[in-house]
Amino acid sequence: MSLSQAQAASHQGILAYRLHGNCYLNLTWHCTLRCRFCPKFNGSWDVQGYDLRLHDEPDAEQILAAAGDVTDCKEIVFCGYGEPTLRLDVLLYVAERLKQQGAKVRINTDGLANLIHGCDVTPQLANVVDAVSISLNAHNEALYEQHCRPKRHGAFQALQNFARLAQQQGIDVTLTAIDGLEGVDIAACQAIAEQLGVKFRRRILDQVG
Ligand code: SF4
To answer: Is the pTM of this model over 0.90?
Structure first.
């Protein structure tokens, strides 16, 4: 285990982990969605050998300590088995501090931050975030509701609005969908991304990390 990995593991769980030349940050286990396909609902919190179950939610300084020196990382990615924008203040603070080290910052998100916070947070994100990868997960609302089981109404439209606003703020936006998820038409998902003027990436079912 490298020093950075050793620093990353605390009594709270793994707060930062290294994969693919990136540093991934694990802020929370809470989600706005309850995706039927999520491994955590089957008891697996594993990503490429890292157990991302958190026993306590870390504060910003604990995350920064776990991240350590990120100057060798291609990207800082906020990503775990939870939605990082639910902890918006911590996310913004940590991202700003790491950007001061010259890091490129990405969020893997459900795209529901504006819905949850009740306002457009993309201007705040644009100050400290370079890219967002947003889980579209379906090509229509009915299928999205079936697979992702959002706790709030209007989530499918809200994530698309978020994508559009983030793009307008100059953030590099990618929508993702999972090939192999029942009923999901990947080409139709890609068409939604094209309509919004953002990028698209196809993911594979049961491949995490
Ligand atoms: S948003 Fe991600 S972590 Fe949350 S339930 Fe869905 S797949 Fe799991």
So the answer is: yes
CA distance 23 to 46: 16
Coil, strand, or helix at residue 116? Answer: helix
Per domain, the residue ranges of the chain are 3-204
Q: Where are the beta strands (DSSP E) in 59-205?
A: 76-78, 105-109, 131-135, 172-179, 199-204
Is the domain spanning 3-204 CATH 3.40.1550.10? The answer is no
CA 81 to ligand 1 centroid distance, Å? 6
Nearest CA to ligand 1 atom 3: 81
pLDDT tens column, 72-95 = 999 999 998 999 999 999 999 999
Nearest Cα residue to atom 8 of ligand 1: 38
